[in-house]
Design goal:
The chain is an alpha/beta fold. About 50% of the residues lie in helices and about 20% in strands. Pfam families: EAL (PF00563), GGDEF (PF00990). One of its GO terms (molecular function) is cyclic-guanylate-specific phosphodiesterase activity.
Length: about 575
């Protein structure tokens, strides 16, 4: 152990302390002071707004987290820390006994747990030191292993042993596993052009790039002169594999620089999954190899799945994502508008902007199919801004066409809050459009705010100051609705259609809807019911003073020209009735 520690860069351990109380920070610093073997360097973060910036832009060895420090959900915040901290260990601390708290915290990503009531200098130093040593050894071993993998030092026997161990873990846990077999295309020409040493540098650089795009739990190995294998563990569904393949394909496609000369390589990927393609290391490798040779038939970097059904699912997702990128550039996306009707006056109070995709080959692709793809790939961010631009443009047109005061509601994806320039971008869009911001409404779900609640609240407050209003979508289906109503600038809630469609069949649904309307009105918040399709549903909502309704009873989502005609017809009908 001493030799391993001496091989590290220094004896200084950097801790990020997440606690709201300065007195706790001083207390923890005092407990860690005076450790002759470990020199602790502590940084205090009492503010959730600064937490994300520190984690992503500053290096720390250990995160010391007081469990009461979170943005409303302890589990969600711990999962965020585990995912965002570049796999640095999280040392959790709370007042409860370890037997009460530790299991749940460990399952959500904590590396160790300490009870405040039992905490002393020795136990704190021991926990920090153990996590620090473990992290240092992991990084050291990972770096050494990476060099051996890329250089070809790991042989096929060791590879099969690692694959067998991964299969045993997958079998015990009841999980799926995927094996990717990668073969570089026409590698002989690189040997002839550059020589064997420089060709090997291509493999070294490619291995390093691939490793940077994989999770720590995934194993990358060089199993031949021009071949790699990747063991992907803890696979939940084909979409997990899709994400890995996308990263691998993108990494392979980027040029490599060898002695100042850019070199572009292509590769063929074969994918076999456990248990679908086999339950032994030999079968899995043989079938991944067979799939790889099938991929050789396609030009450029390509992939094939041995398992046909998984191939269809994941391959379709990847193609859909590529098509969606082209759709945004090729004007294939279109906004449809569904009217919202005021129950008291029967007038159209606003419209919800809904996205549709007119695919040149598949026809109309439903949002349930392509929105998840857009969110996973991050394309939803530019698409979301595009929809806001369209809404502002139509808002201006509707006033010119004789329908002023129409509210345009746009859905805001949770991914939008990952963009640190969201407020600035939306402000620029509405400034350029020169529209009445009080007629622009952003709909968001509770999940949209879970990634970084403090940042989300700050964005909403800033946008609200510009005059933009907010609606809480799918109200009643989330876990913190009341908290959001209290702390966020919400002016409208939308009752989820799952409750509306149960009207007349479920007494519980009726009670829930009555309670939502009563609660919202007591807070001076308007209510819209979604999914209204029958006269009975309409009458129940009218009797209980729901403000607006949206659903097929009045109108389906429609293109802009149809909406203008719909509005004109209703205006003429209103004039005739008068």
């Amino acid at each position: 152990m001493t030799l391993a520690v001496q091989s590290f860069d220094s004896g200084r351990v950097r801790l990020l302390v997440l606690t709201a109380e300065y007195s706790d920070f001083l207390w923890l610093g005092a407990l860690l002071a005076g450790d002759g073997e470990m020199n602790a360097d502590l940084t205090w973060c009492p503010d959730l707004i600064d937490c994300d910036d520190l984690i992503h832009n500053t290096h720390f060895d250990v995160i010391l987290w007081d469990c009461v420090f979170h943005g409303g959900s302890e589990d969600a915040f711990l999962q965020y820390l585990s995912a965002s901290s570049n796999e640095k260990p999280v040392l959790a601390m709370s007042a409860e006994l370890p037997s009460e708290r530790a299991p749940g915290l460990f399952s959500n990503g904590a590396a160790d747990y300490l009870c405040r009531r039992e905490l002393d200098a020795w136990s704190l130093r021991r926990a920090v030191r153990c996590l620090w040593y473990r992290q240092q050894l992991s990084e050291y071993a990972h770096g050494r292993l990476g060099r051996e993998v890329a250089s070809g030092f790991i042989n096929r026997d060791l590879f099969f042993d690692r694959l067998q161990q991964a299969l045993l873990r997958a079998e015990r846990a009841g999980e799926r596993l995927a094996l990717l077999h990668i073969n570089l295309d026409d590698f002989r020409s690189f040997n002839e052009s550059f020589g064997y040493q420089k060709s090997d540098q291509i493999m070294l650089k490619l291995a390093e790039r691939l490793r940077l795009n994989l999770r720590r739990m995934d194993s990358l190995m060089r199993i031949g002169g021009d071949e790699f294998a990747i063991i992907v563990e803890k696979v939940e569904d084909s979409l997990d594999i899709t994400q890995i393949i996308r990263k691998v394909v993108n990494a392979i496609g980027e040029p490599l620089s060898i002695d100042g000369q850019n070199v572009v390589v292509s590769a063929s990927l074969g994918v076999a999954t456990y248990p679908e393609a086999g339950e032994s290391a030999e079968n899995l490798m043989r079938r991944a190899n067979r799939a790889m040779f099938e991929a050789k038939r396609d030009p450029g970097t390509s992939y094939r799945f041995y398992d046909r059904q998984l191939h269809i699912t994941a391959g379709y997702q990847l193609r859909l994502e590529a098509d969606l990128r082209n759709a945004l550039r090729g004007n294939e996306l279109e906004v449809y508008y569904q009217p919202r009707i005021d129950l008291a006056s029967e007038e159209v109070r606003g419209v919800e902007c809904l996205l549709r995709w007119n695919h040149p080959e598949r026809g109309v692709v439903g949002p349930d199919e392509f929105i998840p793809v857009a969110e996973r790939s991050g394309l939803i961010v530019p698409i979301g801004y595009w929809v806001i631009e369209q809404a502002c443009r139509r808002l201006q047109e509707s006033s010119e066409l004789g329908h002023p005061g129409l509210v345009f509601a746009v859905n805001l994806s949770f991914r939008q809050f990952h963009d640190r320039k969201m407020t600035e971008t939306i402000f620029r869009i509405i400034f350029n459009a020169n529209v009445d911001t009080s007629l622009l409404e952003l709909e968001l779900t509770e999940s949209a705010m879970m990634h970084d609640p403090e940042y989300a609240q700050r964005c909403l407050r800033e946008l609200n100051q510009l005059g933009i209003s907010f609606a809480l979508d799918d109200f009643g289906t989330g876990f913190s609705s009341l908290s959001n109503l209290q702390h966020l600038p919400i002016s409208l809630v939308k009752i989820d259609k799952s409750f509306v469609q149960e009207l007349g069949r479920s007494a519980d649904a009726e009670h829930i809807i009555r309670a939502i309307i009563s609660l919202a009105h007591s807070l001076q918040i308007s209510v819209v019911a979604e999914g209204v399709e029958t006269e009975g549903q309409l009458e129940f909502l009218r009797q209980h003073h729901c403000d607006e309704i949206q659903g097929y009873y009045y109108a389906r989502p429609m293109p802009w020209n149809d909406l203008v005609q719909f509005l004109d017809n209703r205006s003429r009908s209103a004039c005739l009735q008068q």
